[in-house]
């Protein structure tokens, strides 16, 4: 089994001291990973694997142990000043600008001044293991070690933990990511019910005229119906701003129940991430059908979003190096966001010389970056991610620096819909009719004045 490589399956324990555990089977829920970054570089010359790892967990705990199984004895080096989200953004931002003509929205800053991190190694022959017994045994039986990250957070009002980054390095000839993790402890019934609450609340519904418009409850129910696409908008927002937010909508509804107009002030207010969320929600709600009424009506409402108690897991897997590593048979939960050749100067701006040396990145060679996003929440039975090493594509092929780039799409006026075209023609006819009538009236008045002048008696 020594052919396996970096493993990011996690076992997590929240402890108050090395000997006494809290949050495991107790009233306080164990921390759950919301988002983690796994930046992988394989030093092909030495056969050594380098993994930069950091995670966001909630709820906060005074001390958390995270276990990463490795196929050989690892070394662990804390990198407390490294912002993993900013690092990934710095690597992909030049490519986005070059190929799409715009920069991606920057992620939320990784708060690194609340927690400290140290590491220690637990070998397969250790008498005591700090993690789930069945999960640990499945790796111990294959002679795996564990890189244990010990995260200490001072008491305070923080709701989550952002761990400092750790550099875990070990010998291995091949890249495999073990996605299988210990099963989660079932929450108490009251917590399970709380966790099922939809992270979307419709608030402050106001409709007029009251004699025509449906009730606030009916409007709220329609806005909540089939909320999956709307929550997808919010999931994308959470990738950049992991926080609660609100989208206000204002709509005019025709008697047949279709929308005459629907907009949000958020489409033009706030930062780009907030505007993208508002635009996404507006696009979906415009297609909603509302009750038929005798007359048109208007309404406004607030859509309040809050991060779910156990948000969808987001694991960013970023592979960087002089070869291209391809994930064979990825699950439906994983999608390839970026796959491209990086310019050396862009890598140099994103990573310090010390970090590039620590990751074993060669100087003067082409470097390839593959960025995957894995959203799988339940990983107790997840299949390992197998990556095949491939030579870099030839110059001119997709993703390479010399590949032809597409011009940014031109911004053109929105095309009229089939329903809008007759209305536009009707408005044009009415306008022409008014102009013709006004011209005829002016001519008649002028003619009458001229005739009246001729009929006046001479002095």
UniProtKB/TrEMBL annotation:
Q: Does the keyword Magnesium apply?
A: no
Sorted UniProt keywords = Membrane, Signal, Transmembrane, Transmembrane helix
Please list which residues make up the signal peptide: 1-21
Q: Where are the transmembrane segments?
A: 433-452
Q: Does the keyword Metal-binding apply?
A: no
UniProt biased composition (Basic and acidic residues):
265-274
Q: What is the name of this protein?
A: DUF2330 domain-containing protein
Region called Disordered, residue ranges: 250-274, 392-430
Which top-rank group of organisms is this from?
Bacteria
């Amino acid at each position: 089994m020594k052919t396996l490589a970096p493993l990011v399956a996690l076992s997590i324990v929240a402890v108050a001291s090395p000997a006494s555990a809290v949050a495991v089977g107790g009233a306080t829920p164990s921390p759950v990973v919301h988002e983690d970054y796994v930046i992988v570089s394989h030093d092909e010359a030495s056969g050594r694997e380098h993994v930069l790892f950091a995670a966001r967990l909630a709820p906060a705990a005074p001390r958390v142990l995270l276990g990463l199984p490795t196929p050989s004895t690892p070394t662990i080096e804390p990198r407390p000043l490294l912002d993993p989200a900013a690092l990934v953004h710095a690597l992909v931002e030049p490519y986005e600008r070059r190929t799409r003509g715009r920069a991606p929205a920057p992620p939320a800053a990784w708060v690194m001044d609340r927690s400290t991190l140290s590491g220690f190694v637990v070998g397969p022959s250790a008498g005591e293991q700090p993690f789930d017994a069945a999960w640990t045994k499945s790796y111990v039986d294959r002679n795996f070690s564990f890189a244990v990250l010990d995260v200490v957070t001072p008491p305070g009002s923080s709701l989550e933990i952002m761990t400092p980054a750790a550099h875990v390095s070990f010998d291995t000839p091949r890249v495999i990511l073990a996605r299988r993790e210990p099963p989660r402890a079932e929450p108490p019934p009251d917590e399970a019910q709380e966790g099922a609450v939809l992270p979307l609340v419709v608030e402050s519904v106001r409709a007029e005229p009251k004699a025509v418009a449906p009730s606030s409850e009916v409007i709220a129910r329609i806005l909540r119906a089939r909320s999956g696409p709307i929550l997808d908008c919010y999931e994308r927002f959470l990738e950049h701003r992991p926080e609660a937010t609100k989208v206000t909508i204002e709509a005019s509804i025709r008697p047949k129940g279709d929308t005459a107009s629907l907009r949000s002030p958020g489409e033009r207010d706030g930062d780009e991430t907030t505007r993208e969320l508002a635009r996404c929600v507006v696009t979906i709600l415009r297609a909603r059908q509302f009750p038929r009424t005798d007359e048109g009506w208007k309404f406004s409402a607030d859509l309040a979003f809050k991060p779910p108690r156990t948000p969808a897991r987001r694991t960013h897997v970023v592979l960087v190096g002089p070869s291209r590593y391809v994930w064979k048979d990825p699950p439906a939960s994983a999608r390839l966001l970026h796959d491209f050749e990086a310019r050396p100067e862009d890598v140099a701006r994103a990573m310090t010389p010390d970090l590039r040396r620590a990751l074993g990145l060669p100087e003067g060679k082409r470097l390839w970056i593959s960025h995957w996003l894995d959203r799988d929440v339940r990983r107790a039975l997840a299949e390992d991610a197998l990556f095949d090493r491939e030579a870099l594509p030839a110059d001119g092929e997709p993703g390479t620096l010399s590949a032809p780039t597409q011009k940014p799409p031109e911004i053109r006026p929105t095309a009229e819909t089939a329903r809008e075209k007759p209305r536009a023609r009707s408005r044009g006819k009415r306008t022409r009719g008014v102009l013709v009538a006004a011209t005829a009236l002016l001519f008649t008045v002028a003619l009458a004045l001229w005739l009246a002048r001729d009929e006046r008696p001479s002095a």
